UniProtKB/TrEMBL annotation:
GO molecular function, one term: hydrolase activity
Superkingdom per UniProt: Bacteria
Protein's name according to its UniProt entry: Metallophosphoesterase
Annotated InterPro entries: Calcineurin-like_PHP, DNA_Repair-Maintenance_Comp, Metallo-depent_PP-like
Species for this entry: Sedimentibacter hydroxybenzoicus DSM 7310
Amino acid sequence: MSIKFIHTSDIHLDKKFDIKNFSLKESEKRRQEIWDTFDEIIKTAKKEEIRYLFIAGDLTEIEYINFNTLIKVAQKFKAIPDTRVVIACGKSDPYNINSLYEYIEWPQNVYVVKNTDYVEKLNFPDDNLCVHAMSWDNGIGNNKAQAIYDISVDDSKINVLLLYCDINSESDKLPVNVDLIKNKFDYCALGSRHNFEKIQRHIVYSGTPEPLDFKEGNEHGIIIGALGKKYVEYTFLNLAKRKFITRNIDLEISYSFNKILDLIKFSGDTFSNIKDYVRINLNGKVNTDVSMEEIENEAKQFFYYIEFEENYSYMNSEDKVYDHNDFNIIESYKLQFENNQDKLEQQAFKLGLEVLRKEKVVK
Protein backbone atom coordinates (compact mmCIF):
# COMPACT_ATOMS: atom_id res chain seq x y z
CA MET A 1 0.00 0.00 0.00
CA SER A 2 1.42 3.42 -0.98
CA ILE A 3 1.75 6.40 1.38
CA LYS A 4 0.30 9.76 0.34
CA PHE A 5 2.57 12.74 0.89
CA ILE A 6 3.07 16.45 0.23
CA HIS A 7 6.55 17.85 -0.26
CA THR A 8 7.09 21.60 0.15
CA SER A 9 9.89 23.96 1.17
CA ASP A 10 11.00 27.59 1.27
CA ILE A 11 7.60 28.96 2.28
CA HIS A 12 9.22 31.93 4.08
CA LEU A 13 6.30 32.94 6.26
CA ASP A 14 6.65 36.59 7.36
CA LYS A 15 9.25 37.39 4.72
CA LYS A 16 10.35 41.02 4.38
CA PHE A 17 10.36 41.99 0.70
CA ASP A 18 13.09 44.25 -0.69
CA ILE A 19 11.85 44.54 -4.28
CA LYS A 20 12.72 48.08 -5.34
CA ASN A 21 9.25 49.38 -6.22
CA PHE A 22 7.22 47.47 -3.62
CA SER A 23 5.31 49.81 -1.35
CA LEU A 24 4.79 48.92 2.30
CA LYS A 25 1.18 48.11 1.42
CA GLU A 26 2.22 45.76 -1.41
CA SER A 27 4.80 44.05 0.80
CA GLU A 28 2.18 43.44 3.46
CA LYS A 29 -0.26 42.15 0.86
CA ARG A 30 2.33 39.75 -0.52
CA ARG A 31 3.14 38.45 2.97
CA GLN A 32 -0.56 37.75 3.50
CA GLU A 33 -0.75 35.91 0.17
CA ILE A 34 2.05 33.62 1.33
CA TRP A 35 0.02 32.88 4.45
CA ASP A 36 -3.05 32.24 2.31
CA THR A 37 -1.13 29.73 0.21
CA PHE A 38 0.15 28.09 3.39
CA ASP A 39 -3.50 27.69 4.37
CA GLU A 40 -4.13 26.06 0.98
CA ILE A 41 -1.41 23.51 1.74
CA ILE A 42 -3.09 22.67 5.05
CA LYS A 43 -6.51 22.38 3.37
CA THR A 44 -5.07 20.15 0.65
CA ALA A 45 -3.48 17.87 3.24
CA LYS A 46 -6.83 17.49 4.96
CA LYS A 47 -8.92 17.08 1.82
CA GLU A 48 -6.56 14.55 0.20
CA GLU A 49 -6.02 12.67 3.47
CA ILE A 50 -2.26 13.17 3.25
CA ARG A 51 -0.27 10.94 5.56
CA TYR A 52 2.97 12.94 5.57
CA LEU A 53 3.74 16.62 5.02
CA PHE A 54 7.47 17.02 4.38
CA ILE A 55 8.84 20.58 4.81
CA ALA A 56 12.43 20.81 3.56
CA GLY A 57 13.60 24.01 5.24
CA ASP A 58 12.76 27.73 5.44
CA LEU A 59 9.21 27.33 6.70
CA THR A 60 9.53 30.83 8.19
CA GLU A 61 11.75 33.89 8.19
CA ILE A 62 12.87 33.30 11.76
CA GLU A 63 14.51 36.75 11.94
CA TYR A 64 11.13 38.43 11.60
CA ILE A 65 8.49 35.99 12.80
CA ASN A 66 7.34 36.41 16.39
CA PHE A 67 6.26 33.98 19.08
CA ASN A 68 2.51 34.55 18.68
CA THR A 69 2.68 34.11 14.92
CA LEU A 70 4.59 30.86 15.34
CA ILE A 71 1.87 29.65 17.71
CA LYS A 72 -0.55 30.27 14.82
CA VAL A 73 1.58 28.00 12.63
CA ALA A 74 1.40 25.27 15.27
CA GLN A 75 -2.38 25.63 15.45
CA LYS A 76 -2.69 25.18 11.71
CA PHE A 77 -0.74 21.92 11.94
CA LYS A 78 -2.96 20.85 14.82
CA ALA A 79 -5.95 21.17 12.44
CA ILE A 80 -4.61 18.18 10.44
CA PRO A 81 -4.02 15.63 13.23
CA ASP A 82 -3.99 12.66 10.84
CA THR A 83 -1.10 14.17 8.87
CA ARG A 84 2.40 13.76 10.22
CA VAL A 85 4.30 17.01 9.66
CA VAL A 86 8.08 16.59 9.47
CA ILE A 87 10.07 19.86 9.45
CA ALA A 88 13.75 20.23 8.61
CA CYS A 89 15.23 23.68 9.24
CA GLY A 90 17.15 25.66 6.63
CA LYS A 91 19.15 28.83 6.20
CA SER A 92 16.28 31.23 7.00
CA ASP A 93 14.97 29.27 9.99
CA PRO A 94 18.04 27.55 11.52
CA TYR A 95 17.59 25.43 14.62
CA ASN A 96 19.73 26.48 17.59
CA ILE A 97 19.41 27.56 21.22
CA ASN A 98 17.97 30.90 20.14
CA SER A 99 15.38 29.41 17.81
CA LEU A 100 11.76 30.15 18.64
CA TYR A 101 11.00 26.63 17.42
CA GLU A 102 12.54 25.43 20.67
CA TYR A 103 9.92 27.22 22.76
CA ILE A 104 6.78 26.31 20.86
CA GLU A 105 4.52 23.55 22.12
CA TRP A 106 4.10 21.71 18.85
CA PRO A 107 1.14 19.36 18.35
CA GLN A 108 1.77 15.63 18.63
CA ASN A 109 1.66 15.22 14.85
CA VAL A 110 4.58 17.64 14.29
CA TYR A 111 8.21 16.50 14.24
CA VAL A 112 10.83 19.27 14.16
CA VAL A 113 14.29 17.97 13.29
CA LYS A 114 16.64 19.23 16.02
CA ASN A 115 19.86 17.52 14.99
CA THR A 116 22.28 19.79 13.12
CA ASP A 117 25.55 17.80 13.31
CA TYR A 118 24.33 14.38 12.24
CA VAL A 119 21.35 12.86 10.50
CA GLU A 120 18.32 12.14 12.63
CA LYS A 121 16.24 9.04 11.87
CA LEU A 122 12.52 9.39 12.42
CA ASN A 123 10.96 5.94 12.35
CA PHE A 124 7.26 5.41 11.72
CA PRO A 125 6.81 1.63 12.15
CA ASP A 126 3.12 1.57 11.26
CA ASP A 127 4.01 2.78 7.76
CA ASN A 128 7.37 0.97 7.59
CA LEU A 129 8.84 4.42 6.90
CA CYS A 130 12.04 6.08 8.04
CA VAL A 131 12.69 9.80 7.43
CA HIS A 132 16.38 10.75 7.45
CA ALA A 133 16.84 14.47 8.10
CA MET A 134 19.25 17.10 9.37
CA SER A 135 18.66 20.79 10.12
CA TRP A 136 20.86 23.84 9.75
CA ASP A 137 22.14 25.60 12.87
CA ASN A 138 23.01 28.98 11.32
CA GLY A 139 22.03 31.33 8.51
CA ILE A 140 25.44 31.53 6.86
CA GLY A 141 26.54 28.18 5.44
CA ASN A 142 26.71 24.44 5.98
CA ASN A 143 29.54 22.07 5.09
CA LYS A 144 28.36 18.93 6.87
CA ALA A 145 27.72 16.86 3.76
CA GLN A 146 29.78 13.96 5.08
CA ALA A 147 27.05 13.31 7.64
CA ILE A 148 24.70 12.66 4.73
CA TYR A 149 27.10 10.22 3.05
CA ASP A 150 27.56 8.32 6.33
CA ILE A 151 23.86 7.46 6.58
CA SER A 152 23.11 3.76 6.79
CA VAL A 153 19.62 2.75 5.75
CA ASP A 154 17.48 -0.28 6.44
CA ASP A 155 16.65 -1.59 2.98
CA SER A 156 13.53 -3.29 4.28
CA LYS A 157 11.98 0.14 5.00
CA ILE A 158 10.74 2.99 2.85
CA ASN A 159 13.54 5.55 3.21
CA VAL A 160 13.02 9.29 2.70
CA LEU A 161 15.74 11.97 2.81
CA LEU A 162 14.46 15.37 3.98
CA LEU A 163 17.12 18.02 3.56
CA TYR A 164 17.80 21.70 2.85
CA CYS A 165 20.82 21.42 0.58
CA ASP A 166 22.28 22.09 -2.85
CA ILE A 167 23.11 19.44 -5.44
CA ASN A 168 26.15 21.48 -6.39
CA SER A 169 29.66 20.81 -5.10
CA GLU A 170 30.57 24.53 -5.35
CA SER A 171 27.70 25.75 -3.18
CA ASP A 172 27.80 26.84 0.47
CA LYS A 173 24.24 25.52 0.96
CA LEU A 174 25.24 22.05 2.16
CA PRO A 175 26.68 20.78 -1.14
CA VAL A 176 25.64 17.17 -1.78
CA ASN A 177 26.92 14.77 -4.42
CA VAL A 178 23.85 13.19 -5.99
CA ASP A 179 25.74 10.01 -6.93
CA LEU A 180 26.36 9.29 -3.24
CA ILE A 181 22.69 9.45 -2.23
CA LYS A 182 20.68 8.32 -5.25
CA ASN A 183 20.69 4.60 -4.40
CA LYS A 184 19.98 4.95 -0.68
CA PHE A 185 16.56 6.56 -0.68
CA ASP A 186 13.17 5.90 -2.19
CA TYR A 187 12.50 9.64 -2.25
CA CYS A 188 14.63 12.74 -1.58
CA ALA A 189 12.54 15.77 -0.56
CA LEU A 190 14.91 18.69 -1.01
CA GLY A 191 14.74 22.41 -0.23
CA SER A 192 16.76 25.62 -0.86
CA ARG A 193 16.12 26.08 -4.59
CA HIS A 194 13.08 28.26 -5.16
CA ASN A 195 12.03 26.79 -8.52
CA PHE A 196 10.61 23.28 -8.95
CA GLU A 197 13.38 21.03 -10.24
CA LYS A 198 13.58 17.30 -10.78
CA ILE A 199 17.21 16.16 -10.37
CA GLN A 200 16.23 12.54 -10.86
CA ARG A 201 12.80 10.98 -10.71
CA HIS A 202 13.06 10.39 -6.94
CA ILE A 203 15.30 13.40 -6.12
CA VAL A 204 13.28 16.60 -6.30
CA TYR A 205 13.23 20.26 -5.27
CA SER A 206 9.66 21.36 -4.64
CA GLY A 207 10.47 25.06 -4.95
CA THR A 208 8.67 27.75 -3.00
CA PRO A 209 4.85 27.64 -3.12
CA GLU A 210 4.75 31.38 -3.85
CA PRO A 211 7.48 33.06 -5.94
CA LEU A 212 9.43 35.68 -4.02
CA ASP A 213 11.20 37.75 -6.69
CA PHE A 214 11.93 38.06 -10.41
CA LYS A 215 14.49 35.25 -10.33
CA GLU A 216 11.61 32.83 -9.80
CA GLY A 217 9.64 33.01 -13.01
CA ASN A 218 8.40 29.41 -13.27
CA GLU A 219 5.22 27.75 -11.96
CA HIS A 220 5.09 27.49 -8.17
CA GLY A 221 3.23 25.18 -5.84
CA ILE A 222 3.75 21.85 -4.05
CA ILE A 223 4.50 18.23 -4.86
CA ILE A 224 1.74 15.80 -4.01
CA GLY A 225 2.12 12.07 -4.52
CA ALA A 226 2.42 8.56 -3.16
CA LEU A 227 5.45 6.47 -2.31
CA GLY A 228 6.37 2.94 -1.43
CA LYS A 229 9.43 0.74 -1.45
CA LYS A 230 11.31 1.47 -4.71
CA TYR A 231 8.25 3.37 -5.88
CA VAL A 232 7.18 7.01 -6.09
CA GLU A 233 4.56 8.79 -8.16
CA TYR A 234 3.83 12.50 -7.85
CA THR A 235 2.42 15.54 -9.58
CA PHE A 236 3.19 19.23 -9.28
CA LEU A 237 0.19 21.20 -7.96
CA ASN A 238 0.27 24.88 -8.88
CA LEU A 239 -0.89 27.04 -5.95
CA ALA A 240 0.73 30.43 -6.56
CA LYS A 241 -1.56 33.44 -6.55
CA ARG A 242 0.79 35.56 -8.65
CA LYS A 243 3.80 35.18 -10.90
CA PHE A 244 6.93 37.26 -11.40
CA ILE A 245 7.23 37.76 -15.15
CA THR A 246 10.18 39.23 -17.05
CA ARG A 247 9.75 40.44 -20.63
CA ASN A 248 12.27 41.83 -23.11
CA ILE A 249 11.52 44.63 -25.57
CA ASP A 250 14.03 45.68 -28.22
CA LEU A 251 13.70 49.34 -29.19
CA GLU A 252 14.77 51.11 -32.37
CA ILE A 253 15.55 54.78 -32.88
CA SER A 254 12.66 55.09 -35.33
CA TYR A 255 10.04 54.07 -32.72
CA SER A 256 7.63 56.82 -31.66
CA PHE A 257 6.16 57.45 -28.21
CA ASN A 258 2.96 55.54 -29.05
CA LYS A 259 4.83 52.68 -30.71
CA ILE A 260 6.94 52.07 -27.59
CA LEU A 261 3.92 52.41 -25.30
CA ASP A 262 2.01 49.83 -27.35
CA LEU A 263 4.96 47.44 -27.27
CA ILE A 264 4.89 47.60 -23.48
CA LYS A 265 1.09 47.36 -23.16
CA PHE A 266 0.77 44.38 -25.49
CA SER A 267 3.96 42.55 -24.54
CA GLY A 268 1.92 39.86 -22.75
CA ASP A 269 -1.63 38.75 -22.15
CA THR A 270 -4.10 41.05 -20.43
CA PHE A 271 -4.79 38.60 -17.60
CA SER A 272 -1.18 38.47 -16.44
CA ASN A 273 -0.85 42.25 -16.80
CA ILE A 274 -3.65 42.88 -14.29
CA LYS A 275 -2.67 40.06 -11.92
CA ASP A 276 1.07 39.45 -11.87
CA TYR A 277 4.32 41.28 -11.18
CA VAL A 278 5.88 42.35 -14.48
CA ARG A 279 9.40 43.55 -15.20
CA ILE A 280 10.16 45.00 -18.63
CA ASN A 281 13.76 44.95 -19.89
CA LEU A 282 14.03 47.85 -22.34
CA ASN A 283 16.92 47.31 -24.75
CA GLY A 284 18.21 49.05 -27.88
CA LYS A 285 18.15 52.67 -29.05
CA VAL A 286 15.66 55.45 -28.28
CA ASN A 287 15.24 58.72 -30.13
CA THR A 288 16.12 61.66 -27.89
CA ASP A 289 12.79 63.25 -28.84
CA VAL A 290 10.94 60.50 -26.95
CA SER A 291 10.41 60.82 -23.19
CA MET A 292 10.79 57.34 -21.72
CA GLU A 293 9.83 58.65 -18.28
CA GLU A 294 6.43 59.69 -19.62
CA ILE A 295 6.01 56.34 -21.38
CA GLU A 296 6.79 54.40 -18.20
CA ASN A 297 4.36 56.50 -16.16
CA GLU A 298 1.66 56.09 -18.81
CA ALA A 299 2.18 52.30 -18.94
CA LYS A 300 1.59 51.83 -15.20
CA GLN A 301 -2.19 52.22 -15.55
CA PHE A 302 -2.37 49.02 -17.62
CA PHE A 303 -0.61 46.77 -15.09
CA TYR A 304 -1.14 45.51 -11.55
CA TYR A 305 2.59 46.01 -10.98
CA ILE A 306 5.29 46.98 -13.45
CA GLU A 307 8.93 47.96 -13.18
CA PHE A 308 11.55 48.69 -15.81
CA GLU A 309 15.17 47.80 -16.39
CA GLU A 310 16.54 50.56 -18.60
CA ASN A 311 19.20 49.01 -20.81
CA TYR A 312 18.65 51.32 -23.78
CA SER A 313 20.69 54.28 -25.05
CA TYR A 314 19.41 57.65 -26.26
CA MET A 315 20.51 58.72 -29.76
CA ASN A 316 19.67 61.57 -32.09
CA SER A 317 17.87 60.66 -35.30
CA GLU A 318 20.18 60.73 -38.31
CA ASP A 319 20.54 63.76 -40.54
CA LYS A 320 18.30 65.95 -38.42
CA VAL A 321 18.13 69.56 -39.72
CA TYR A 322 17.65 72.28 -37.12
CA ASP A 323 16.17 75.68 -37.83
CA HIS A 324 16.63 78.72 -35.63
CA ASN A 325 13.67 77.91 -33.39
CA ASP A 326 14.39 74.19 -32.97
CA PHE A 327 18.01 74.54 -31.99
CA ASN A 328 17.36 75.34 -28.34
CA ILE A 329 19.00 74.33 -25.09
CA ILE A 330 17.56 70.81 -25.26
CA GLU A 331 19.03 70.16 -28.71
CA SER A 332 22.36 71.59 -27.60
CA TYR A 333 22.31 69.28 -24.58
CA LYS A 334 21.57 66.26 -26.79
CA LEU A 335 24.57 66.93 -29.00
CA GLN A 336 26.92 66.81 -26.02
CA PHE A 337 26.00 63.17 -25.42
CA GLU A 338 25.52 62.10 -29.02
CA ASN A 339 26.50 58.45 -29.63
CA ASN A 340 27.93 58.06 -26.14
CA GLN A 341 27.77 54.41 -25.03
CA ASP A 342 29.05 54.73 -21.47
CA LYS A 343 26.28 53.42 -19.20
CA LEU A 344 26.84 55.91 -16.39
CA GLU A 345 26.85 58.87 -18.79
CA GLN A 346 23.74 57.51 -20.47
CA GLN A 347 21.97 57.43 -17.11
CA ALA A 348 23.07 61.00 -16.42
CA PHE A 349 21.87 62.00 -19.88
CA LYS A 350 18.41 60.43 -19.34
CA LEU A 351 18.01 62.24 -16.02
CA GLY A 352 19.17 65.58 -17.42
CA LEU A 353 16.98 65.29 -20.51
CA GLU A 354 13.84 64.70 -18.44
CA VAL A 355 14.68 67.69 -16.23
CA LEU A 356 15.12 69.94 -19.27
CA ARG A 357 11.83 68.74 -20.76
CA LYS A 358 10.00 69.62 -17.53
CA GLU A 359 11.66 73.01 -17.42
CA LYS A 360 10.51 73.63 -20.96
CA VAL A 361 6.90 72.73 -20.05
CA VAL A 362 6.97 75.02 -17.03
CA LYS A 363 8.19 77.95 -19.09
